[in-house]
Amino acid sequence: MDMNEIKEIFFQECEEQLAELESGLLKLNDGDRDPETVNAVFRAVHSIKGGAGAFGLDDLVSFAHVFETTLDCVRSNRLEPNQDVLKVMLKSADVLADLTNAARDGGSVDEARSRQLIKELEALANGELPQAAAAEPVAKSTPTAAPVPAVNEEGFQPVAFSFDDFEASEPPAIVPSTFEILFRPKSELYAKGNDATLLLRDLSRLGEMSIHCDMDELPALGSMNPEAAYFAWKISLKTDKGEEAIRSVFEFAEWDCELDVTLAGGDHAGAGEELPMQPVPFDLSLLDEEVPASTGAAEDDEQLAAQQREARDNAVSAAATASNVLQMAQTARASAESTKCVAPASAAQAAAQQAASAATPTIRVDLDRVDRLINLVGELVINQAMLSQSVIENDTNGTSSINMGLEELQQLTREIQDSVMAIRAQPVKPVFQRMSRIVREIADMTGKSVRLVTEGENTEVDKTVIDKLAGPLTHMIRNAVDHGLETPEKRVAAGKNPEGTVRLTAKHRSGRIVIELADDGAGINREKVRQKAIDNDLIAADANLSDEEIDNLIFHAGFSTADKISDISGRGVGMDVVKRSIQALGGRINISSKPGQGSVFTMSLPLTLAVLDGMVVTVANQTLVVPLTAIVETLQPEASAIHSFGASQRLISIRNSFCPLVDVGRILNFRAVQANPVEGVALLVESEGGGQRALMVDAIQGQRQVVIKSLEANYTHVPGIAAATILGDGRVALILDVDAIVAASRGQSLKPEMSLAAAG
Amino acid sequence: MKKRVLTVDDSRTIRNMLLVTLNNAGFETIQAEDGVEGLEVLETANPDVIVTDINMPRLDGFGFIEGVRKNDRYRAVPILVLTTESDAEKKNRARQAGATGWIVKPFDPTKLIDAIERVTA
Amino acid sequence: MASRNTAKKSLKLAPVLDLNEATALHERLLTLKGSPVEIDASAVERVGTLCAQVLMAGARSWEEDRLSFTFAKVSDAFVKTTQLIGVDIAPLMAKEI
């Protein structure tokens, strides 16, 4: 492991800590006063600061330091974490995240913003609370991190090491002088794992030393406490290192001993004359290295036994053995050379680390490797399907053992595929967490007060889906705060809590992930939407639309209900873009709204973008795949159930209700005239608005799992078509975009959507 | 014979730095992620010296040090505290809990090794 | 004194004479009181101050009892550490009779 790898680990850890920080702050914001929550928040910032310091990331260190100082005030109950305080802290968390990203990827941060927050944090730490300011020296001073010198890329950062009384740089070389040292340890010195022997050893390394051990205090054997301090020493030391060096030897013992260091002046003088001083041999190095062979072996045996007891030890000793080959750089400067040597041992080290921290049995794998595996499995699925097909075509008996084997193969392939997909599945948590920042920023800009509530953050979905979710979700959240929620004044006037709530939930439902975004705002102003649609020629002035249909108008291109384009969600990017990105993911989106109570956007997305369960159908001699998740049931229409109305509209009656009939071949322009419903099959599908439509196709070929091949990536976007796949017989089939087809069928009046059919 | 160092720190970054530094310097390194785990592995780690962080979940450095000092077999093991705070208050609390010495983060490997050498025979 | 004729007892010191060993060593020495004792320090790797204190208190005690208290075999580490901390064990080294 080299410094770059550790740095990478550091940034990964930062991400985790930032998430921890944010969720902790949000908990505090919700009134949680558990000290452990405060501690966790403090630790997160503290930990980022610690690592950043080691890598010389100055900006990060200094901001984290100020943040930490303020958090410490909260931790020690000197600062009440009320909403105002948390507002500053949440913003600070955002800046900390920005600084971390800047440190990782280069780039810059909004310096004015971070300077402003530093001021606010400092104000919180001292200003507001008089008694706290008085009691807390840290808060009073302007906290700035120790300046750190530049450092080479992989080197450790030799910074800010401050033995307090040793802070000044190395004392200048001094001519040798003799010091008289009186050293009387207290019992505590020994109780804390220190030993006068060690201190005297270090002292003797400074120069020429003579020593007298004062045993006057030593009681009789019977009355002594074997763990009490009785010995004291009078030492004469001739050294050129100076008094500072002597005192620094006793740095750790300072409180646990009496120490007196005086310059004896000049050469060998000394009050030591009356005492018998014992000269100490200059070289005591043997003390460290010397190990009698016999006892060493004994301890090794003991160690061996311990290893057998505990696998952990095995790993540790493996690492140790491996590292034997390493350069034993006493200084341990992780220089370029030595880090290179470390490489062969890194596996063992990793194992040791794994063993030592047995808590999480996980491995980190490059996403590339997983993607490659998923691609290969996709090919395997296609291959298996082709194999099945050709066996079926060539084997008319149909009952041979080959068929059975094929079935098993199919099952196995399926299981492999599921397992591989599970590797890439990840909780939506990180995306949800990003949203809380968006909410804060937008609330700030609009002067609204907003609370984001998230649920189901641990719902898992394919990473590729997660990655593409952030864009549309961000836009929708902005929209919800900007357009959905009212201003605090209006809310109060409406008898609502001045603070609006945006609720983001994720859950699994029938093989898909459903993400809901609900606000408790004013709901959609249908009259306004309708008027706007009429003004923009989206609908005819006399069009008779249901509430649901009006609500869904906001997904049409170029539609914006805000009176003026706002900074936030304006700029011509509307919900139509959101809808298209969701559709590109194979998802659906719809809205339901209650005036005065708010709106709910519901997105339903596939769990993976790699495979799809589909129904293979024929339409005008073309083979199409309809996603199985969209299909409610299939039925054979009878002539008596078909009812025409208007110029070209037809309905099918199903169990005493009517459902619009959608001619897929006509909409996709596969044929010029309407097909006869009685000669085909109707697929009852649920459209995103909740209503049902009957898609008319010529015939059903069967059900199968297909591997999705992006049409955009390989060809170009085709309206009404979601993607393509390769069937068992090697033919390419198009996967139907059911929602687009339904939408196109719905609106004689919905011109932009109609162009879909024309283009298709 | 190699000296065995038990490190207790909840930061993966610091753990890795300690591991690399200590291994390069010829120590055998055993690592724990917090005070609770530190006390759990004490027996198997059988350390010559312990390096511990202060701010940790579950059981912080102060509690961990007290735990070690109460352990009949390991109470004499020198304990160095890794701390970002250089203020006397933190050091004092660590010392009262029974710490032998301290290393101020961000640590310089030389000083880390130096501090370890100082408190071990 | 009857004890004068008691056979010489020997005490082998542990390799690591640290805080924990101090109490144990103290107890073992107390049980040997009344007999001349010969200490084997050949296996000693580390000498902590607390154990050195116990040993020196023992030496004094034995001297008061006029019994011999000698170091028979000593390791290099033992010699060097005692020298370092100014504890003179030369007078206590076993002499060939």
From TrEMBL, chain B:
InterPro entries in the record: Bact_response_regulator, CheY-like_superfamily, Sig_transdc_resp-reg_receiver
Species of provenance: Sinorhizobium saheli
GO term, biological process aspect, one: phosphorelay signal transduction system
Name recorded for this polypeptide: Fis family transcriptional regulator
Domain Response regulatory: 4-120
Pfam family membership, one: Response_reg
PTM-bearing positions, type 4-aspartylphosphate: 53
Keywords, sorted A to Z: Phosphoprotein
The keyword Ribonucleoprotein belongs to this UniProt entry's keyword annotation: no
